[in-house]
Amino acid sequence: MNTPVLSNASPAAPDALRLDDTGLQAARNSLNDGAITPAYGPHRDAIVKLLNDALATELVCVLRYKRHYFTASGVSSPPIADEFLVHANEESAHSDRIARRIVQLGGEPDFSPATLLQRSHADYDESNDLKTMVRVNLIAERVAVETYRQMIALIGDKDPTTRRMLEDILADEEEHADELKDWLEK
Length: 186
Prior knowledge:
Blueprint: H1 21-27, H2 43-71, H3 77-104, H4 116-119, H5 130-155, H6 160-185
């Protein structure tokens, strides 16, 4: 089978833009691996570990936001509590996406309640003061933003699908942080 060469290949180095026949042949083997081809190499396990820690973080955030939603009180609490519920639901959707990606990578999502807090980058919180709730959630969102930025940099081009998913989640986390900052300033 001839390997296609991209049309904009430089005449001086046409081999530099050829697909790897060895990689293509390897993709024909190990059909039980689904979308995971040998190109994932040694990085797959490390990426699954990063994703399981992100999953724990998202689950802790869901629990914190839900608690704050149900316990927020005071005259100004209804709109803020409603925002906590919106964030809880969005964090839950993030955890679903992450768990689905872990499975696609041939890993197992770790939902163990026994280790959630140990693996999470964010903290759980039981405060009762509305302003403290907003502040704690803003801190957690800022931690999530930094965590996802670092994960994206670490993954780089090793797994473009995971990187794009993390970039989408990062955009949501940045939006959450901006909303919470606005609530804190009111």
